[in-house]
């Protein structure tokens, strides 16, 4: 952890960390409150391909979670939040997946484990990072799309990050309570503070 500030973090990690911190500040979450960051990881790249055949079409998605105190995420430099996101995502390996499958196989009611509004409301967030999904390559016979966005951001605390048509910019959509949005908009563009914290 002592050299975590010297590590090169991905766009996903840095952007998610920034948006997460801004959401915590906008919501006015108390420093000692436990907060949850969750995202999705494609298990195909983390698992032996002899078990999951190439081209397998079906859900193989896992949701790693980081649970920590709001005050640490907000008061520490940006790299700290990015490092916690990296920790959560890198825990998803073949052993993690096998353990998750074993756990799921003994559950009598899988609907109780489904994510949704009840799993990411204030103070938690759920980030969907869709940069790698080739939305703009889809062609159903009348040409490629000109503009793509998610149909909606279904619940408070949900964040969607997706590419523009050229793939050179990212769109960030977030669902927060109306009372938090003004503060969020102010925080998201406050990069002077971020520069000092890097």
From TrEMBL:
InterPro entries: CAT-like_dom_sf (IPR023213), Plant_Fungal_Acyltransferase (IPR050317)
Protein family according to the UniProt entry: Belongs to the plant acyltransferase family.
GO MF term set: acyltransferase activity, transferring groups other than amino-acyl groups
Organism ancestry: Eukaryota, Viridiplantae, Streptophyta, Embryophyta, Tracheophyta
Pfam families: Transferase
Keyword field: Acyltransferase, Transferase
Protein name in UniProt: Uncharacterized protein
């Amino acid at each position: 952890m002592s050299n975590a500030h010297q590590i090169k973090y991905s766009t996903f990690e840095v952007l998610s960390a920034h948006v997460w911190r801004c959401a915590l500040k906008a919501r006015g979450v108390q420093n000692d409150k436990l907060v949850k960051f969750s995202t999705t990881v494609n298990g195909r790249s983390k698992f032996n391909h002899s078990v999951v055949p190439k081209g397998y079409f079906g859900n193989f998605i896992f949701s790693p979670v980081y649970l920590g105190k709001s005050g640490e995420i907000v008061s520490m430099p940006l790299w700290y939040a990015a490092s916690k996101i990296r920790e959560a995502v890198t825990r998803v390996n073949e052993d993690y997946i096998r353990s998750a499958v074993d756990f799921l196989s003994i559950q009598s009611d899988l609907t109780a484990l489904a994510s949704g509004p009840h799993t990411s409301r204030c103070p938690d967030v759920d980030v969907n990072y869709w940069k790698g999904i080739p939305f703009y390559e889809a062609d159903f016979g009348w040409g490629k799309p000109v503009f793509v966005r998610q149909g909606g951001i279904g619940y408070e605390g949900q964040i969607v990050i997706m590419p523009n048509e050229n793939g050179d910019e990212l769109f960030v959509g977030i669902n927060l309570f109306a009372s938090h949005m003004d503060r969020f908009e102010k925080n998201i563009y406050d990069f002077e503070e971020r520069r000092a914290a890097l």
